[in-house]
């Protein structure tokens, strides 16, 4: 399979894209992404262009946002085919540019930060949640459709985090530790973490992944191995910053919790935090921060690039005496 990713500040940059193909028995110019004109908003967008032998291999299975568009074409492409009417070229996979008959699948899913899903309509407007939403667009070429890709258990957590970042824990084990140290009930764990040794003890016990001091922004948090079949995110992006955490091997799945929740932690209340399954093997979890650059080919009134950051968590089989957490991360510096 071949995968290329592109990042845009606004979906309108794709609206005019055309592909010349024999479609339904005649030569036609297909307006591949015409649907973005009818969305009513120019979303920040991630475009993934793929060639796969079968649709089941596509990275689309990792994307579980709200489906807003989906279409399939049967196309016959000439050698040297390319997308036209774009300010910045999009490279089609080599297997596609060589020409031939393909199924072409176009789909788009919208990701809303978790904080936005719990807003009232008024809060949604006043907070400007729509400006944090991301459109994931897939353009997939495949030779055969064996089965429709099913969503993997491991999808993305997409959420807005402030400087207190997030932590990854097994909530039951974490709560048991807090009860043992501080007792049942409500606790200001931010205060405890900064005035006692509890945070260090949690690290030593292999019970906590903590990323603090990050730029307030919206982030993706996932656990996908580099080179994993069908994984489109992250691909080919440099690692901006890393942390390494001693973490109990028995913990297979973690809750991803905003750091701000530590201010008023209640050991007697189990909240419905999003969860991800940790990929990899070993007693150390490596956390990589990557930052994609969302380009803006047209509008000179806005920055040339905006950051689209994400954290990727994976177990690795190495020796580590103590955790080395991320306690400061400036995504703007990752853009330079």
Brief summary of the model shown:
The protein has helices at residues 94-97, 114-117, 121-126, 171-182, 189-195, 198-204, 331-334; strands at residues 2-8, 18-23, 26-31, 44-54, 66-77, 83-84, 100-111, 134-144, 157-161, 166-169, 186-187, 209-211, 217-222, 239-246, 253-258, 265-266, 275-277, 279-280, 284-295, 305-316. With 336 residues, it is mainly beta.
Distance between the termini: 31 Å
Give the helix/strand class. Answer: mainly beta
Figure out the total of helices.
7
Overall mean confidence score, pLDDT:
86
Q: How many strands in all?
A: 20
Beta-strand fraction estimate? 35-45%
The geometry reads as elongated
Helix content estimate: 10-25%
Description:
Strands 1, 2, 3, 4, 5, 6, 7 and 8 form an 8-stranded mixed sheet that branches. Strands 9, 13, 14, 18, 19 and 20 form a 6-stranded mixed sheet that branches. Helices cover 13% and strands 39% of the residues. It folds into 2 domains: 2-144, no CATH class; 157-334, no CATH class. The chain has 336 residues and is mainly beta. The model has no long low-confidence stretch (mean pLDDT 86). The longest helix has 12 residues, at 171-182. It has helices at 94-97, 114-117, 121-126, 171-182, 189-195, 198-204, 331-334; strands spanning 2-8, 18-23, 26-31, 44-54, 66-77, 83-84, 100-111, 134-144, 157-161, 166-169, 186-187, 209-211, 217-222, 239-246, 253-258, 265-266, 275-277, 279-280, 284-295, 305-316.
């Amino acid at each position: 399979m071949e995968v290329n990713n592109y990042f845009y500040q606004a979906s309108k940059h794709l609206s005019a894209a055309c592909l010349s193909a024999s479609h339904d028995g005649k030569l036609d110019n297909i307006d591949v992404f015409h649907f973005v004109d009818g969305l009513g908003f120019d979303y920040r967008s991630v475009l993934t262009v793929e060639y796969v032998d079968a649709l089941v291999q596509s990275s689309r299975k990792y994307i579980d946002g709200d489906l807003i568009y989906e279409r399939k074409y049967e196309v016959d492409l000439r050698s040297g085919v390319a997308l036209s009417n774009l300010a910045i070229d999009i490279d089609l996979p080599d297997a596609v540019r060589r020409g031939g008959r393909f199924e072409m699948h176009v789909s788009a899913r919208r990701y809303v930060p978790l904080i936005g899903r719990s807003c009232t309509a008024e809060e949604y407007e006043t907070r400007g949640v729509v400006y944090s939403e991301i459109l994931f667009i897939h353009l997939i070429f495949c030779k055969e459709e064996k089965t429709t890709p099913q969503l993997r258990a491991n999808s993305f957590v997409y959420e807005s985090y402030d400087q207190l970042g997030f932590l990854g824990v097994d909530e039951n084990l974490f709560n048991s530790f807090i009860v043992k140290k501080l007792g049942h009930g409500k606790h200001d764990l931010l205060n405890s973490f900064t005035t006692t040794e509890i945070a260090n003890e949690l690290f030593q016990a292999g019970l906590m992944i903590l990323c603090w001091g990050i730029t307030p922004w919206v982030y993706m948090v996932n656990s996908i191995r580099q080179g994993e079949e069908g994984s489109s995110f992250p691909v080919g992006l440099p690692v901006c910053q890393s942390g390494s955490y001693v973490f109990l091997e028995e913990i297979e799945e973690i809750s991803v919790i905003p750091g701000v929740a530590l201010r008023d932690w209640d050991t007697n209340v189990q909240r419905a935090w999003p969860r991800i399954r940790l990929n990899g093997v070993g007693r150390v979890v490596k956390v990589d921060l990557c930052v994609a650059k969302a380009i803006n080919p047209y509008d000179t009134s806005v920055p040339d690039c905006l950051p689209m950051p994400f954290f990727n968590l994976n177990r690795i089989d190495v020796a580590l005496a103590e955790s080395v957490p991320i306690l400061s991360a400036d995504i703007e510096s990752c853009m330079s």
